[in-house]
Amino acid sequence: MDAHLHIDQLSQQVADLSSCFVPGSSCLASSHSQKTLDTSRALCAKLPSSIKIFLSLGLHPQLPVFDEAEALADAAAAGSISAIGECGFDFFGDTPLRTRTPQNERLQRTIFEYQVNLALRHNLPMVLHLRKATDLIFEYINAMAQLPGLIFHGWTGPPNEAISLLKRCPRALFSFGTGLLNGNKKSQECVRQLPASALLTESDAPFQPPRERPEPGARVIREWSQPDDVAAVLRFMAELRGCQESELAAIIRSNFEQLFKD
Ligand SMILES: [Zn+2]
To answer: In the structure, what pLDDT confidence band is assigned to residue 187 with cuts at 50, 70 and 90?
Structure first.
């Protein structure tokens, strides 16, 4: 299961897309505009039928504008997307727009609230992107608990926050990618402590190139991530939990399929 990837951007790295998916896998591909949604849909149509791709569309907090808001509302109403996102908050501080000022916070909140309302109206799951903003999510979590599902993509927060979000929103899922292999101790602790029913795997392809674990500063082995990197993530998750890989794979499949199934 790859709960989060960007197939249009992956196609710019990999010539033969079908070569980097595990046959029989299911994926959720996120887009941020009508144009990338259309491109993603066209790319999916060319993949073998053994690979199931569901599509989501969202207004990304790294591009906090309303340009695509109408397209998103139309797609949600038409039932042509399976989820809303990725969306959320980004106050990482690496660019002026991602710095937590009252003005930026207001803007990102407005865009986020618009999407929460759409998801509630159309009963769609949401895919969340959060950087340095978990406190804000606690303000919205009770409303989002009414959604069919809530995916915290690339979760890097501490286990106590994940568990407390899960308590308020039992349909929350915490998705882990190659970052887990790169030695993030908080993520590893989350994988150990969260119930298996709250776990997902993802590649965030092409944006999370895997490194050889476990040493910090390890060599980058590829310039991009791709969906079959999820196999290594799953293996490591099973190792962390001390369980069989096949057993965990079946649970993660069922977690994903509760939200996304034909
Ligand atoms: Zn992403």
So the answer is: very high
